[in-house]
Structure formats: structure tokens, C-alpha cells
Amino acid sequence: MSKTFYITTPIYYPSGNLHIGNSYTTVLCDAMARYKKGKGFDTRYLTGMDEHGQKIETVAKELGKTPQEHVNHIAEETKKLWDMLQIDYDDFIRTTEQRHKTVVKKIFEQLLDQDDIYLGEYEGYYCMPDESFFTETQLGEDKTCPDCGRPVELVKEESYFLRLSKYQDRLLKYIEEHPDFITPEQRKNEVVSFIKQGLNDISVSRKSFDWGVKVVSNPAHVVYVWIDALSNYITALGYNSQDESLYDKYWKGDEVVHVVGKDILRFHAIYWPIMLMALDVPISFKLYAHGWYMMKDGKMSKSKGQVIYPEQLIKRYGLDAVRYYLLRELPFSGDGVFTPEDFVNRVNYDLANDFGNLLNRTITMANKYFDSKLEKPQKQYTEFDELLEKEIENTVKSYDAHMDELQVSLALQDIFTLVSRSNKYIDETAPWVLAKDEDAKDELNSVLYHLIESLRIIGIMLSPIMLESSKQLFKQLNIPKSLEHFETRTYGYIEHIKVIDKPTPIFPRLEKKDEEAYIASLLNQREEEPMVEEDFATIEDFMKLDFVVGEIVESKVHPDADKLLVSQIDTGDKVRQIVSGISKYYKPEELVGKKVVVVKNLKPVKLRGVLSEGMVLAGKNNENLEILEVSSLNKGDKIS
Ligand code: ME8
Fold first, then answer.
1. Burial profile 172-203: b = 16 or more Cβ within 10 angstroms, e = fewer
2. N or C: which end of the chain has fewer CB within 10 A?
3. pTM exceeding 0.70
């Protein structure tokens, strides 16, 4: 019977759009589940939404929706995002589902009956965005949340408490006896020193709001959102329900992994195992706490215009460039910084130059020298053959070791070292020289065969991560299905092969400056928050915009971004400066004299350092962009 592997992401708060930071975890878990499946494991992948709590209640109210309407909408949007990222999850749990709420109620009552939960009075501070309690001494400057720096509220209310203190020693012992329970090591040390300072019992219910699971024996109380949320990892498996088969199979199976960000380590490394101890449920999981994607100026922040959403990147650069970047750039134990320059470099150097070229060169040479047909060679011809075969073997070993430790960034590094090594093998063996010598035909066949085997094995290793390009690679090399499997990652499986007649490049090189400017411009799109917008614009929304005729008096290319034009446009009241991404379609001098439609009252923004006071309307299709022009109206005339 196959071994089991159960992997989970945190369940996300539906408080706004999921950005590349949250997406990182979900792509990481997806790659892990696919890898384990490739290795023959019976896998289960759970993700979902954490839909209760004061924060969600408040956000929904601000949007004029009921909390349920709000979370329904965001759950749908989130699923669309996961579809776009081709996340192959097996279950998507929402804490508002009955299957979850029923079990949370039972868990709470059981802990209450056992006296692991007791009624008391809470007085302290609450950070709503983090849904976390703090004592006065834990607060940051000016009574702010020590984790996120935002203001906290003073809470004084009757509350239930969970006896963390009772389990403190048992938990420390558990961590000592299971050295690989929490990774990376540095995070484990943080947890151990936190526990050693002494654990206080925590408040596990709230009375002052409504949106959550009601305590059965005392419905004035709502179960604390973290107790509710953490339970998802077992409620989704049917724990304490009529059908516990998934729970028995996966929770009590071979490997269980929770992947979380560093900020929610404490909840998973302390509260969750203690809840399980109290419930007498085995602590079967290992915990991996990763770092964060930051922006150049610090944390990702919507309000500072410092956030990037995966949808926009996927649309322009394709799924694999984004999955590759996300998993390659963030080291497992530290933070990473998202920059447009790094993104473009990764695509150009790693994907287009190294990987794409290797495939392209290999197929082109197979077409040219052997009419696309190659045979397994009978012997090694040069020391380079042996070296490459060894390199393939070592890469597979190192890749597996890294993947088994969730070090996906290092596993990718292993693959790309083999890519470089294979490119170097072409230079070392110089096939173009061999091609001139009729007696070297077999040796030349051997060179190309080695390259194809190396690429095939690279393709298999990439397949959990780069879904489309690994398929493309197999297709262009015409690899039989049976040789796309993980157990065939050894040199020499192919007997004969006929690759396709002409390669298609899988990663076109990006125009560095243009694309850096494009990605940088995405960072400033503060207004674009599709997940919290209403489905319809009202007439009032429309009336807020002030459309007028403007006459372009001057236009120049933006000093720092070739894609952008900076135009001076007379809208009757004044000459305003507007930056537009249209230089691909219009020369600056062509614009002068045009009478165009301007949105006059958009909030001014700086685009690549240049102020833009409005927007020029244009229409667009796949080939063309055309500015909307008027003929008989005059500058300053109103349009509605
Ligand atoms: O914490 N880079 O949900 P959440 C990397 N509902 N990861 C990031 C990140 C960034 N810039 N920003 C956020 C919650 N994350 C709870 C979880 S689980 C039982 C309940 C990660 O939507 C963050 O570290 O606020 C966390 O792991 C995840 O996104 C969800 O955050």
C-alpha cells in the first residue's frame, strides 16, 4: 500500500485580495503534493478560508454586505485565483461550512467538560487585524500591536480560557523528543524560548461581536477565531463526524505537514499541539514556517501601493514564469524581496537563456544532423559523457533531498545547475565540429542522446513546479508517457527517439526596460482591488467621474520608462500633465493637436516618478490601441 502524505496551507482570511505572498504558500504546497504524488505517495492537499471573526464582520459592514455574502464572494474569487495558478487541491474548507462548525462546537464542549477550558474574565488588548490578544507589557510603542504595529483595542469581558499552562511541560518535552517537529531550526528556537518564559492561559471566546461559532452551552459567547480556524486541519478530514475514514487514513497516516508563514508560527506550534493533546488526538504533523515576500520599501501594503497580485503577472508572463519566480526567489528560512528587476532577470536568464535555449539547441541539432532521430549509444565516447551522467545522478539525489525538506528553492537551484551543466556539455563536445566528420557520427548521436536524456530528467523534476513548460518539453522531445515518471529519472531509459521537426521557444526573452516598467506600474495600481469591489457600478459611481474634452499640446517619452508617454493636455480649465502607457502605438509628435477624452478628476499619482493628473481614454484589442477622439467638440466640453 502507498504511504500517505497530507499537506495543508493556512486557511486565508477573506479580508481582501490574496497577493503573491499568500500565493507563495499555496503554490509551494501544490508543488509538494505533486512531487509526493510523483514519488508514489497517496496524497491529500487541503486549503481553504478562515471566514469568521471580528475583522471579517467589520470588513463586510464597511462594504455594506452581510458577512456571509462577503465571504461567499471572496471564496469564489480565491478559487478563481487558485484555478489560475493551477492549484490541484483535494479539498477547500470554509469555516462557515456546517461540517466544520458542528465539530468545532463539539471540540469546545469537550474541552469545557474536561475543564481544559474554564470561564473567567478577560482584561487586555486585542489586535483585530491579527485577531490576537496581548497584555499591556507585550504592547509596542503607543499601545500598538507588537506584531503588526497597528492600534489595539482594550477589551474587558467575561471569557472562556484554555489552560495552556497545564500543557506547557508536555509540549516542551514533545518538541525536545521530536527534533524535526518545527523547521527551520531558528523558528523552533523562537518557539522554545517563548514557551520557557511561561505560557499564560489564553482567552478562547468573545462576547462583543457575533460572527463566529456560538458556544453551545453558553451562546452569548463566540469561539475565538484561532480555535475555530486551527481545527480545520482535522474537521476537513471528518474528525469526530459520522465518517472518519479520511481522518484515519491521512491524520493517522505516514506524513502530515502544515505549511505556515512565520507570523502565525506561535498559533501552530503552541496552541494547536496543546489543543490536540487535550483532545487526545495524535500530534502527527510537522510544521514548516516560511519567511515573507517583502517589497523594496518593507512589508507589502495596499495602502502604500506596495503590493503585487499574481493574476496580472500570469496574464502577461504565463503561469510557469510566476510559479518559478515565487518558488525560486524566497529562501525557505528567510524573507525575500520582490522586485521587477529580479522577476525579469529570472525569466530572461534562467528560463529563456539557460533552459529554453538548451531545449531549442538540442532539438535544432537533432533536426539538422539526424533528421530528428536518435538512438541509445553503445558506449561512452568522452569523459564529458561520464561527467554528465554522474551530474544527472547527483542532481536527482540532491533534488529529492531538498524537496523532502520542502526546500523547493534549493531543489530548483539543483535543476538549473544541471541545465547549465548541460549547456556547458554542448560547448565541451562541440557537436558542430563532430558534424563535419563522417566517422564521428556515432559520437555525435551520443552527444545529442545525452542532452535529450538530461532534458527528459530535468522535465520530470520540473513537472511539480512548472506545469506547462514541462509538458511542452515532453511534447517537443516526443518523450513516451511511460518515461515521464519519477522512477525513470536515470540516464539511459530511452532506446530510440524522434523529436519534433522544429522547436518552439517556450520562454521568449523579455524586453528588460519595458517589462520592468510594466511591473513597476502594477505596484501603483492601488485602485485595483477586484475582490472587494461591488459587482455593479451605480450611477452615483459613474457620476463621480469627470469626463471632458482635452487638446494635446505637447507629448514626450517618459524619461525613465520607454513604454510611457508624458503629455500636456489642455482641458479648458488648465493644462494638465497625463502619463499614458501608449508609446508602443503612438509617436509623441502624432498626438499633438488631437482632441481626446480625459478623466479629469482621477486622484493624481506618480508613475515612475512623473506626476499624472488624469487619464486619457483609449480602446484596445489584441493588436491595436486607439485613443478616443472627438471632432466637433471643443476643449473643456463635458462628456457624460
Ligand atoms: O493568518 N509573504 O490568514 P492570513 C509570504 N487566517 N507569506 C505571507 C505574506 C507575504 N508577504 N503575507 C501573508 C491567517 N503571508 C489565518 C490563518 S490557519 C489555521 C489560519 C502568509 O490570510 C501568512 O504568513 O492573514 C500566513 O501564513 C498566510 O499568508 C495567511 O495569512
1. eeebeeeeebbbbeebbebbeeebeeebebbb
2. N
3. yes
